[in-house]
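Contributing new records

If you add data, match the layout below exactly. Sequence lines come first and carry their own label; structure lines follow with theirs. Keep one chain per record. Anything else will be rejected by the validation script.
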Amino acid sequence: MVRRALKSALLAAALLVFVPQAARAEAQGPLPGGGRIDVGGGWRYLPGESGGGAVARFGWQADAHWLLGVELGFAYFHQQPVEGPVRVTVGKFLLTTTYQVLTRGPVLPYLSVGVGYGLIGAVASERYSESGATDFFGGVGFYVPLTERIGLVVEDRFELANASLEVHGIQRKVAGGGNLLWAGVVVTFAPEQDRILAP
């Protein structure tokens, strides 16, 4: 009984802390001129493949809807062609643009596109081969503000990135793209003029 009462008290305290903050975050919306960092990871899926990926995006809020950013990413997965198993890794540097469809509400949908450079590597029969490729993606996601500065993000994207690599002694096209469903944490920063600086 005491434990149950203690849990109820803690839950009520948490609601008192986070609900007002979330309400303020919802009322304020994105701050033009502010910064934003998204960091997360997820699951890459294509038929017959398995793997995952990580994303770190650094953005600048041009206005209430548009976010311009630079993204660093990494993906790894396994392919199973008829010649034998292949381990593939992809390192990415991308320029991104995100359009926030809504700027008010508990859940904010957005559209995102990016283009840049991908370094695709493959290991097959204990031999490593790598090549650069143009990397492009388009995605849809949801941003959930928890406080004025912290939120959660979930995004599903489809990427295109192909390279010609030597796999099991054969030169063949290796797909470094595919679907990536990822989730992460978002930290936003106020515009420079709105920051309180100590003397």
